[in-house]
Amino acid sequence: MCIFSRAISNLAEDDYNTVRAGRFEHVVALDAQIIVAVSGGESHTLALNDKGQIFSWGLGSDGQLGLNNFEECVRVPRNIKCLSDVQIAQVACGYRHSHALSKGGQVFSWGQNQFGQLGLGMHGSSISTPQIIQSLQGIPFAQLSAGGAHSFAITLSGAVFGWGRNKFGQLGLNDTNDRWFPALLKSLRSQRVIYVSCGEDHTAALTKEGGVFTFGAGGYGQLGHNSTNHEINPRKVFELMGNIVTQISCGRQHTLAFTPSSGKMYSFGLGGNGQLGTRSTCNRKSPAPVKGPFVASAAPIESESEQCFCIHRIYAGGDQSFAHYYSPNKPQTITDVQTNRGICTLNEDIIEKWLSHSTGRLSLEISSEIDLVFSSASCLNGSFLATSNPDHFNTSSKFSGVDMNMARLLFHRVIQHDHPEISQLIAASLEKNLLPRLTNSPPDIESLRLYLTLPECPLFSDQNNYVTITIPFAKSIIMLKEAALKVLGNWWSTFEGMLFQRLVELYKEVVVYLLRMHKLGIPSIEQRIFNCFLDTSLRFLKMLHAVSERAGHIIEYDKFYIHELDDLVDIRNDYITWFQRQMFPSGPDSLVTLCRYPFVFDAQAKTTLLQTDAVLQMQMAVDQAQMQNLSSLFMPVESVNPCLILIVRRDNIVGDTMEVLRKSKNVDYKKPLKVIFVAEEAVDAGGVRKEFFLLIMKELMDPKYGMFRYYEESRLIWFSNKTFEEFDLFNLIGIICGLAIYNLTIVELQFPVALYKKLLKKKPTLDDLKELTPDVGRSLQALLDYPEDDLEETFCLNFTITEENYGATEVFELIPNGENISVNKSNRQEFVNAYVDYVFNTSVAPLFEYFYAGFHKVCGGKVLELFQPNELQAMVIGNTSYDWAELEKSTEYKGEYWKDHPTIKLFWEVFHSLPLQKKKQFLLFLTGSDRIPILGMKSLKLVIQPTGGGEHYLPVAHTCFNLLDLPKYTSTETLREKLLHAIDHNQGFNLA
């Protein structure tokens, strides 16, 4: 591009005589340069070459030339050397100030600053060298514009920032206060703005759909609203509606708009110098067509002699207007030199260029470009923008505007094993430049996009980069201020499950990596750094867990479990450390306790925590009792038993237990439980306790009490409010369940998961009703799923509620119609919700309250709250995940027995041939329960030892110790007969 300079606008006043006024002259000094963009101010000019260098000349008294001086006039273009290391993409001149946008997304400003038009937050003083507007760092900008003493910048997704003079409302911020820092025009965020043009004291914005908004000074009609009023808020130019405007340009006090469909230009505002092109010097308060032989590019030409032109670009000067045009009869030769003059982003084309270089050392151009992109938050935030509906112009606190699939594909495209030099350079740029510069208070939501996309880069999942990239990245997120974190959380909550889980899995792997390193041994001097790394990773996972929970489980809760913890961490010691921190919060806080992040614990780890907590509480209860007993030697204080002793008769087990528990205090429930059956000599080392729970729960569930209703279809029970028993019995059952958990004993309770939800203060749902009474649940689901169009205004359910399928006649009180239930189609969800609520809550409220109170007397606490309902259920009743091979593998032997002893081989041969029911009976015979503890088969720790008697003796189970006395049988038949006889008569603890 050749540059021509007009004397009266670009030379200082003293030099007007050197060139004839109104005449353009060739700027010979720039002949050696390939100029791609030019911008002119009141009396100065900036030119940008193809290498991203800026040249300036003209008036410089306010530092607007950026040459580190305040020279009155510079006649010959000079390079702004302080920007020579920065690739500039755009320049924009105000009257006496200047701006530049770099390829890396930085916005520079210099010149006059009387009204804050530099956006630096500094008052008054002019600045003669380009300064970065720090408050705009990280935002992916598309365009800069400068007016008389105000400035604008718009992002790639249409967010508009303005600063500087605002006397007439030209910043569109609903006031007339000047701004020294860039301010977001919130009213334009949703309008999809793609271009902004500034006049002396007014502004125009163009939207993607072709709409025009104007605001600021309107004294000459330059706002186009058919008035001379000033506007302090953006207002749409309604007279341009119906036309798709693609270009706008603001002069000093007039405005131009171009509509390519008709080929017309429209103008409005000051017209005293003919700048409106209406063949009149009158002002125009609303858009008027510019007179001229202009046609649409696709319009047919009626005759060759007719002079018609197609407009390419429009420009508005001080009191002038210009248009680039071409003849429709000739090929278009005018090119748009502004095209693609924006920040650098990661896309398929640029990656292809990087990968196409010859293997080996990267060229300086490519390495610089890679470093530019991956060192710049702006470049990454402007990459991977969504183009589908909704596209990135819909970016908001709820929608990121990012195409995550594109991000993943492009990151995996650029990080390849065949090009390690590219991967190494990207890693270095992220580590040394990008991550250290991230701020905790990003200026706009568009500057948050990289927090979504970067983890998709394969470098993050490379263990070699955990410490240098992956963990520092997480640190930058957890350091964000609340407003930014809220937006990020909203965006994460829109992730598909697989995408969200990849992020969770990444940081779970980081935690496992750190714990493995710690187990191998970390020098004490590095312990603090390790703790920081571990805490950062866990805090980030905690943040993701909270997002998933708030969003209704983006992924299931167990996807956060780190199953390797059992092998890598002493969970008991971790809990004790955490417990001590709770007791003494003012102590040192250098260690990281995993108990602060309980969502990573799986069911086995939680069980270990609960067991540890129970042991601690038992020990404290025992210590307290012993202290009281010691005091009773010297003071009139009643001595107490350090254990909770239950002396019961088998034929009155409920009554005897009730009597003891009614006399017990809450503190007694925390003591170790010892059970004694009257007239039986067994010492309770665990086995007697097991049988006690088995017998008392069987008795309490007996239909003679009528406390629970049995559902044949599901084989489950639920509370029945038809019982005539005292509510204290429900309290007793709650205490029994709590004592079972507290004393690490599983009990037989055939309740649905809904019970455990309610114990954890979670609401039962229709799925829980399906578990309890499948037929009714399926029918209600069918009611919800039935197509809306096929429903009458009022209709009957396709099942009848009776005593048999609901199990309680109270439903007839809820719905008087009984068997013919009518439900309005508009409230069927309400009906289903009410039905579920009635079954699980309303109808059993007082009964469950007593049960709940009894349970929490024993088991209330923070550790219990860590469990999910199904995990708590497994804690109470065990599970049926039988693994008989694991049982054999984990069994230990004493005396003469070992795994290959002939009798042992016979035993396992017989055992594995038994039907499932007999195997379960064997477990009941040996352990006191036919269910498996939550920790699995291996936790049973079965022990087999020989006895001194002959083959006519039966096997004997020491239930307290899971110990089996097995005579030395020599034949399969004898062993089978004796074993079956023993397990069929398994009650009682008389000595063998």
Keywords, separated by commas or semicolons:
cytoplasm, Methylamine Dehydrogenase, Chain H, 34% helix, 29 helices, 992 residues, alpha+beta
CATH top level class name of the largest domain: Mainly Beta
Taken from the alpha-carbon principal axes, the silhouette is: elongated
Uncertain stretches: 4-21, 334-339, 793-820, 988-992
Going by helix content, strand content and strand pairing, the class is: alpha+beta
CATH superfamily of the largest domain: Regulator of chromosome condensation 1/beta-lactamase-inhibitor protein II
Question: What's the end-to-end separation, in Å?
Answer: 108 Å
What's the CATH topology label of the largest domain?
Methylamine Dehydrogenase, Chain H
**Number of discrete helical segments:** 29
Helix content: 25-40%
How would you sum up this structure, described in words?
This protein is of the alpha+beta class. The chain folds into 5 domains: 1-138, Regulator of chromosome condensation 1/beta-lactamase-inhibitor protein II (Methylamine Dehydrogenase, Chain H); 140-296 and 308-332, Regulator of chromosome condensation 1/beta-lactamase-inhibitor protein II (Methylamine Dehydrogenase, Chain H, 7 Propeller), CATH 2.130.10; 348-494, no CATH class; 700-877, 2-Layer Sandwich (Hect, E3 ligase catalytic domain); 880-985, Hect, E3 ligase catalytic domain (Hect, E3 ligase catalytic fold), CATH 3.30.2410.10. It has 29 helices and 34 strands. The strands form 11 sheets. It has a 4-stranded antiparallel β-sheet, with no helix packed on it. A hairpin with a 4-residue loop joins strand 23 and strand 24 (321-326). It is elongated, with a radius of gyration of 40 Å. The termini are far apart. The model is unreliable at 4-21, 334-339, 793-820 and 988-992 (pLDDT under 50).
